[in-house]
Amino acid sequence: KRNSNEPRIISLIASSTEIVHALGLGRFMVGRSHECDYPDSIASLPICTGPKFRTDGSSYEIDQKVRALVQEGLSVYKVDADMIEALAPSHIITQDQCEVCAVSLRDIQDAACELISSKPEIISLKPDCLNDLWQDIKKIGASLNVENVATELVNTLKKRIEGIQMRTRTEAETSQQGARVKVACIEWIDPLMAAGNWMPELVELAGGENLFGIAGKHSPYMSWSEIVEKDPDVIIVTPCGFDNDRTLQEMHLLKEKEGFGDLSAVKQGRVVVADGNQYFNRPGPRLVESLEMMAEIFYPDKFDFGHRGKGWLTYER
């Protein structure tokens, strides 16, 4: 039986669900979003949200549906206010970073959270870069009275990143080419989008030169001619919300583009499919694992964290 003083947490973002568990607060979660899928223990929790359209279409079809909703000023997601009311949360975690990536602050406001009888505290996150992630972890920790645990978690994650950075910096400086590998990160295939936000930071930390997208800024559209012109050494295809199998189903869209076979990354067998759902596009503690994967991808003879073939794989055309 729960103590009445214990928190009752609903997490409406996959990344914040992971943060809650990393802070040792998983046992206090009472509800989740339809996208929260890690750790496995949350599978039995009630689902409080859902998409407004089928998400099993092609990249282009998903993009068109999202655009139509956003252009009308509508949300991409629906919130089950009745479910939230029944769960009587003390805290609801949402985000104000992207209207498309996850249930947003506006969605919760539209669901009339101020009328929910339990009067929950709304914790809204806005992770645009790695430093924002550290602040978000501390924000959740402060709201749930585990400030020291949050600080310790942030310090541990930073130390892991620093350890990887030191090793990749050495590899970049001693590489035969004498220069960092040029990297293109593709976050959406049709239409083409480059990875922004924290992804350019991860590329640099892993010893690469990021060609597209700006750290701390939303993911920009890009043209195929730009990719051909900059001719990356490595291409990482990691669509937001797609696992590796789903991405492989759409890789033909890139393979069929003019000049694909002439790209350096293709000739050298360095086109990679990476799990954008579980890792690269999820701003939680496992961004450190995403960095480990980049180190494996950029310097395959020097790094092996055990992610190859699981979190990422080489595209065999």
Question: Can I get a quick summary?
Answer:
It contains 13 helices and 12 strands.
Category by helix and strand content: alpha/beta
Rg is 20 Å
Secondary structure tally: strands: 12
Give the DSSP E fraction (strand runs of 2 or more residues).
Answer: 5-15%
- Tally the helices: what do you get? 13
Note the quaternary state here.
Answer: single chain
The topology string of helices and strands comes to: EHEEHEHEHEHHEEHEHEHHHEHHE
Would you write up a description of this structure?
There is one protein chain. The chain is built from 13 helices and twelve strands. With 317 residues, the chain is of the alpha/beta class. Residues 98-102 have low confidence and may be disordered. The chain starts with 8 loop residues before the first strand and ends with a strand. The strands form three sheets. Strands 7, 8, 9, 10, 11 and 12 form a six-stranded mixed β-sheet that branches. Helix 1 links the parallel strand 1 and strand 2. Helix 6 packs parallel to helix 13.
Which characteristics define this entry?
alpha/beta, 6-stranded mixed beta sheet, 38% helix, globular
